[in-house]
Specification:
This protein has a 17-stranded mixed beta sheet that branches. Strands 11-12 form a two-stranded antiparallel ribbon. Strand 14 and strand 15 form a beta hairpin. By secondary structure, it is mainly beta. Helices cover 12% and strands 51% of the residues.
Length: 393
């Protein structure tokens, strides 16, 4: 069994100490204090006796400061606690090829995009409201020959529309394009839904297809009322590079920005992770994201993301990462006419992830958000972010 944990520090607002901030922050503080008891006490001893069981606990939090522009200046503290439980049925002595996964999330703090910035792409990819829920619970069966089948509550973005090189960055668009996350209800963080996924891998190729609940926020499966989310993706791996082509369709009824009614929605996307060059203690790579959605029924009709990710940017810092990326969400003609949006919202993000020790990461980032939300009344937001990661053995 492997048991790992990650804590990311929280900053109080104003001058009040953290322990005076609401129940969810108090809960997280108690979890930090009680974690060693779980890891090294009876719970850990029990988990060690279960072959094939792997438990991961992550504490994730950050400080976000809007120095100007957007809705208002100010700061927010937010965080997420993630408990993941994996079970390999073969290692447990049951049957080959079976994998079970459960994930419980607890979030606290305000969403800085809603309270400070006013952007549509969501500056922090851990932003949510104060709550605890079961995020994922699924079973996967892997067969001989590269075929696998997965079903249960599953985060679509854990497998679809994923760029490894873009994972350094904090803006949500670098996780999945806003032409999906903004336009349609989908099985994404922080609200996964029921799904069924089929995959086949062979000779540098991976094909996946899945169907998901049409509105995960209801926690029920109602295809006649909510529709279904269908998605497929083909991945090609070649000399360290990864190229992905995907398409999706949502069968639920849609109301366009101008009030027109539609019976479905659809789009396509392309991703690329491309190595550039390397040196003794590091390497550089770039990524590209391109997403298109139907313009007559969506607020965002196209999205482009582009970035550079440098691993080991400084001598003696081979584990650190430095990155610069741009994300541009284009508003459709219908959104511009009906909602008064500008042409696009553009994010420029600069990150440095410093690995201080094996158990301590410090990850500052800066974001410049041009035309937040496409609102002509909002000026460029200048956002500073800090994540501190403490990993316990």
């Amino acid at each position: 069994m492997r048991f790992s944990a990650l804590f990311m520090g929280h900053r109080p607002r104003g001058i009040r100490p953290t322990w005076l901030h609401g129940g969810m922050v108090q809960w997280s503080a108690w979890m930090v204090l009680l974690l060693p008891a779980f890891m090294f006490g009876p719970f850990s001893a029990w988990a060690d006796r279960v072959p094939g069981l792997e438990i991961e606990v992550f504490y994730v939090g950050e400080i976000v400061r809007n120095a100007g522009g957007g809705l208002r200046t100010g700061d927010e503290a937010l965080g997420s606690t993630d408990l993941g439980i994996h079970l390999d049925t073969a290692e447990a002595g049951w049957w080959a090829g079976g994998y079970v996964y459960a994930e419980i999330l607890t979030n606290h703090g305000a969403d800085p995009s809603a309270s400070l910035i006013g952007d549509i792409q969501t500056a922090s990819n851990i932003a949510d409201r104060n709550r605890m829920r079961l995020q994922q619970l699924w079973y996967e069966q892997r067969f001989d020959g590269g075929l696998s089948l997965l079903f249960g509550w599953h985060d679509m973005n854990s497998e679809f529309y994923v760029s490894e090189q873009a994972s350094l960055f904090m803006n949500s668009s670098f996780g999945i394009g806003p032409e999906i996350s903004v336009n349609v209800p989908a099985s994404l963080w922080p609200e996964a839904g029921a799904g069924l996924r089929l995959a086949y891998a062979a000779d540098g190729l991976l094909w996946m297809a899945a169907v998901y609940d049409g509105d995960p926020t209801t926690r029920g499966i109602h295809p006649s009322r909510e529709g279904l989310m269908l998605i497929t993706e083909l991945d090609c791996l070649h000399d360290g590079a990864v190229y992905k082509l995907g398409a999706w369709r949502h069968s639920g009824d849609r109301t366009g920005p101008d009030g027109r009614q539609f019976g479905s929605d659809a789009g396509v996307y392309v991703l690329a992770d491309q190595p550039l060059f390397g040196w003794e203690d590091g390497k550089a790579a770039m990524f590209m994201q391109l997403g298109l959605a139907q313009a007559d029924r969506n607020e965002i009709d196209r999205y482009v993301g582009l970035g550079l990710h440098v691993h080991g940017p400084l001598p003696g810092r081979s584990d650190d990462s430095l990155g610069l990326a741009v994300a541009r969400a284009h508003f459709s003609d219908a959104a511009r006419r009906a909602l008064g949006r500008l042409d696009a919202e553009t994010v420029i993000e600069l990150d440095y992830d410093a690995v201080i020790t094996a158990w301590l990461h410090v990850h500052p980032a800066l974001q410049w958000i041009l035309h937040p939300g496409g609102d002509p009344l909002l000026s460029t937001a200048r956002v500073g972010m800090l994540r501190v990661e403490l990993a316990l053995p």
